[in-house]
Amino acid sequence: MYPRQFDYVAPSSLEEALAALDANPGAKVLAGGMSLLPMMKMRLLSPEMVVDIGRIGGLGDITDNGDSISIGALVTHTEVSASGLVQEHGAALATAASWTGDRQVRNRGTCCGSMVHADVAADQPVAALALGATMVAASSGGTREIAAADFFVDTMMSALEPNEILTEVRIPKAGPGTASAYDKLGRRGGHTDYAVAGVAASVTRSNGSISAATVAVTGVGNRPVLAAGVADALVGSDGSDAAVEAAAAHATDGIDVLEDLYGSVGYKTHLAQVFAARAVKAALSAAG
Amino acid sequence: MSSTSVLGGVVRRREDPALIQGRGRYTDDVKLAGTAHVAFVRSPYAHAQVSSVDTSAAAAMEGVLAVYTAADTDHLGPLIAQVPVGALRPLLNSGTVKHVGEAVAMVVAEDPYVAKDAADAVDVDYEPLPAVVDLKQSLSDEVPVHEGASNTLISWVGPFGADEAALAELQEGIEAAKQRDDAVVVSQEMINQRLIPVPIEPRSVMADYQAGYDRFDIYSSTQIPSALAGAIGKYFGMSMNQVTVKAMEVGGGFGCKLNVYNDEVLVAFASRQLGCPVKWTETRREAANSTIQGRGWVATATVTGTEDGEILGFELEGIADMGAYSQNFTVAIPFLGLFVGSGQYSFPTYWKMDCVTTHTMTTDAYRGAGRPEAAYYLERIVDMYARRIGMDPAEVRRKNYISADDFPGAVSPMGFPMDTGDYATNLDAALETAGWSDLLAERDAARAEGRYVGVGLATYVEVCGFGPSGLVDLGFSWAEYQMPSAFNGSSLVRVHPDGSATVSIGTGPSGQGHQTTWAQIVGDGLGLDVERIRVIHGDTEEAPPSIGTFGSRSAAVDGAACYEATGKVRAKAARIAAHLLEASEEDIEFADGAAQVVGTDSSVSWGEIAACAYQPHRLPEGLEGGLEAHAIFSPGNATWPFGTHIAVVEVDPDTGDVDLLRYIGMDDCGNVISPMIVDGQIHGGIAQGIGQAMFEDAVYGADGNLLSGSLVDYILPTAADLPSFELDRTVTPSDINPLGVKGIGEAGTIGSAHTVVNAVVDALEPLGVTHIDMPLRPRRVWQAIQDARA
Ligand SMILES: Cc1cc2nc3c(=O)[nH]c(=O)nc-3n(C[C@H](O)[C@H](O)[C@H](O)COP(=O)(O)OP(=O)(O)OC[C@H]3O[C@@H](n4cnc5c(N)ncnc54)[C@H](O)[C@@H]3O)c2cc1C
């Protein structure tokens, strides 16, 4: 486990960090290091420079913006899962963070890092999708906002440019009648480890029917992805178990389901449906 | 707890403070000035002709000291093995490589980073050849693993020692039973999958050749320090006293460090060539393809019995995966399975395992080594039979046990004499502890609610504590390693002039608690506080030669030697004390750090006794100076521990997810020296068995690539995945050693995998599932449910 040689800088301001990225096209941002360092040690990735953002002030907070909440680049999984704000407005994300890896990983790894890393079986990206999150990216040229739906581009590839830093994940506050939930089967069984399949759902109930829904699936395809078929079938329905189960049958519509060590195509398709139903039911019951 | 402790109850492990505070010293912690580091160039192909190896770019890199290929090392010969059946491993191979990860070249550099960079820069051209991974395909010899040789290395047939006529008669008997009107025949092919041993300290070796003195200091995380010293001596034409091997904290071994490895020899070679210390520590990814693996059987088990639970015959026929080359024990592992092929039962058993090569890493001893596999097939098929005839699985087992009345003198149907056993008492104790009938009622109630709860039971007998010394007659020999071949134990107990004591012992523990156990034996024998006793193991300079720690043998063999050496020291000390106290030797007893005349307050401390011992002029006439003794214990048999395990599970039928709710172990390892250590061994053993049942799987692609070679995909059980085990024990002392102990290092693993599988199959019985191959990952369980429903 010996990485190739690389340079290391630990700037104390965002500007310096962005300048370092501009100056070194082969550089990689280091946050919690839970994914970057193993890849470097296995020589799957050999950046010429590592820009450690851990000493930059102001990136470690979860803030209330009035109509949204922001999760800064250095906020850990543990902090996300324990945050009252996140639990209230993005329960799916709080749950996903609490089921990410083990305690050590949750104490070091960051929510933003998990987004950028965009693992095919990661937990939190689907919660961001279901919650309609916005990714705020900074570069020396300024900041831009990327909708979560446009962020996860391909296998382990986000829409972020190499010279950008994801400074915050912004989640709109949940309005009345809106709630979210996440459920998965972990590779170790139960909720432990990466998702064999996992589904995050956000639903809004008004006047006895579902007026809005966003559902996203992880673990089954090449990236965390929206399951529009489920959401479409839910909207306008009464949210009965039968309606939810009928909608959940669309969990992998339009998704190219891939086999891996943890599941065949058939099994993963089935699991996505099971967890779509479970997540939607949990969200509906939380929405009241 | 119904346990007895021969030596005084729960003692905390003395080794733990250093280990849990991160202050233990492991091989990789050894720092010597000027140490060079090794990286290996390894084959990415399972089977390929190496057409060229270009080391020039690597050799030219700054900081690189040497790059060696087979041309440099072939003169040393292949890797030696204790049971050299089949092709032996070349130290380096630039001919035809036979598995992914096989070492092609070795780079030595000033630091490990440069070494790895240079290894990446070695340019090797391979011409890939077809690989064979599947066991049945290998058996057909369609694709030879080694050109011109059959893939089948040996077939182990049992009962042991039966000639052809006896085997034919046995098979005819079972065949006739199958024809009976009331015969029930249950047969199932099952896979006992390959596993990757994952000790917490990967293997690590450092060789320091001291040219000025023509001697070696070798530091290695090995379970067999004396054998490594002998091997290094043999390769370099040195005598035993020119090579010192030190195994410090070994950080787990589970059998995978019970080999002398090619890398150990190569690191020593490089140190001699370069005149500096040379170190290599394997990385996890490397370990998955270059440290031995375990299990890897496919076999069909068949039980023939009556409708009322009398088993008339058991047959096992299958294939075991040896990997590409034979290392220390490779082909002997299924033979260890044959030892316990008929378990604790009395029914006729026919057993045949073909040992075949494949283009994969070598297999060898992994916790249990052949016995978990053998027990798995037996206990799964007996369970299936019980289910088929609708009888309580506990009753079926009880009905077919070897009776307690047959001991001493019982001989298993496989032809092996057993020491002691009382299986029914153990089974009853387990059923009572678990609340068997309540468990079944709770399961039935859950079923009525539509839940899939299952209760699994399995019993086992295991064979360990090798000895008998005569095992060498069966073809096991340490002579290859310049060692005495006998499977005996050895210990040296010395009392220092201040009355403290040191026991030097030839064991090579990797976490078994020897610092505590040997101190307890000596302390108990001498009436000395354990804190006054130092334990030295894993150091060939200090300890008498011995064959190390494996096969749950240390307590029963070296522990017995320790006990006997202690007795000799005590006898001499009693003479000195009697002399000093002007009393009769028979009236001397030892306690609280002193010798005392029974029934008086006349006493003399160990310090005074020892001081006298080292001043011969003060000793009674005819007594030599000094206070130490050496004992070699040669066991007459192995020991045969046994037990009963019970698991309760619940399955989510929508996902196939298995929740292990309870796990109960009732083990019998004879007398117990240290209850806490015994429980710890059982805990770890069960965790490893559950690991096989539910998580672990060395998955090879058809091209021979290991697909689960990192800890991301090779899923190990963690404490968080397991319930709190409920343990208790029965005590049936062994009669083959003076301590009455049997081994306990592997029993937990031997008893557990099938217990969990039996429970899951029980849970899914209402759906018609009769068998699922391990590991019971959700995908498999779900698929089995689909198949049963279809
Ligand atoms: C043992 C283990 C178990 C795990 N189990 C799970 C699991 O069950 N579920 C799960 O979802 N994940 C799991 N993970 C992965 C882990 O949760 C995340 O991938 C990880 O936390 C990413 O965050 P990080 O801060 O550690 O990122 P790093 O490792 O530091 O970086 C990851 C990648 O993101 C980039 N990056 C990080 N932060 C930024 C930023 N702010 N701006 C731009 N680029 C950035 C880096 O350059 C790098 O490419 C596990 C990891 C380990 C080691």
Summarize the entry for a quick read.
The complex is a heterodimer of chains A (288) and B (790). Helices cover 34% and strands 27% of the residues of chain A.
- The stretches of 5 or more residues of chain B where confidence is low (pLDDT under 50) are 1-6
Q: What's the N-to-C terminus distance of chain B?
A: 48 Å
User: Which runs of chain A of at least 5 residues are low in confidence (pLDDT < 50)?
Assistant: none
- Our measurement of the CA-to-CA distance between the termini of chain A, rounded to an integer number of angstroms, reads 51 Å
- What structural category do the secondary elements of chain A indicate? alpha+beta
Q: What proportion of the residues of chain A form beta strands (DSSP E)?
A: 25-35%
CATH class of the largest domain in chain B: Alpha Beta
Strand percentage of chain B: 15-25%
User: Describe the biggest sheet of chain A?
Assistant: 5 strands, antiparallel
Helix content of chain A: 25-40%
Return the CATH architecture of the largest domain in chain B: 2-Layer Sandwich
Helix/strand/pairing category of chain B: alpha+beta
Written as H for each helix and E for each strand, in order along the chain, the element string of chain A is EHEHEEEHHHHHHEEHEEEEEEEHHH
Tally of helical segments of chain A: 12
CATH classification, class level of the domain at 178-287 in chain A: Alpha Beta
Average pLDDT over all residues of chain B: 95
Work out the largest interface and the residue count of each chain.
A-B, 24 and 32 residues
Name the hetero compounds present.
flavin-adenine dinucleotide
